């Protein structure tokens, strides 16, 4: 009987309005490109949810730090965590200013990039460069 009561309570909880604090951590890029454009609509749709968003480009133990959810690049996850892919892999892109192109020319192949000045992204936690 106790199990039946618990099951009924669980189902009835699903019909209630979501509410409470949700702590999320994500890289700044994810917030700017994905979350920020939908943030106002999310707050309007779920007014009883208090979002606490932490922007950090490094990695840390999400569970130990008390977060409910973390959005990260890559496929490494810590012990006790469950991961879900939320977007398809993105291809690398290159950007150059018109001034740079005027001065150094437009690369026409991947191999030509070795002769250009590039800015690489450095992972905060591992200090490795993304090539």
Please describe what this structure looks like:
- This protein has 131 residues and is an alpha/beta fold.
- It folds into two domains: 1-89, D-Maltodextrin-Binding Protein, domain 2 (3-Layer(aba) Sandwich), CATH 3.40.190; 91-131, no CATH class.
- 29% of the residues lie in helices and 15% in strands.
- It has three helices and five strands, in the order H-E-H-E-E-H-E-E.
- The strands form two sheets. Strands 2-1-3 form a three-stranded parallel sheet. It has a two-stranded antiparallel sheet with strand order 4-5.
- The relative contact order is 0.13.
- The mean pLDDT is 82.
Outline:
By secondary structure, this protein is α/β, with parallel strands linked by helices. The chain is built from 3 helices and 5 strands; from the N terminus they run H-E-H-E-E-H-E-E.
The average pLDDT value, as a whole number, equals: 82
Q: What's the overall geometry?
A: elongated
What share of residues is helical? 25-40%
Number of domain units: 2
What does the radius of gyration come to? 21 Å
- Broad CATH class of the largest domain: Alpha Beta
Task: Give the strand line-up of the largest sheet.
Answer: 2-1-3
CATH architecture label name of the largest domain: 3-Layer(aba) Sandwich
Residue runs with pLDDT of under 50 for 5 or more positions: none
Q: Which class do the helix and strand fractions yield?
A: alpha/beta
What structural keywords apply?
2 domains, D-Maltodextrin-Binding Protein, domain 2, 131 residues, alpha/beta, 3-stranded parallel beta sheet
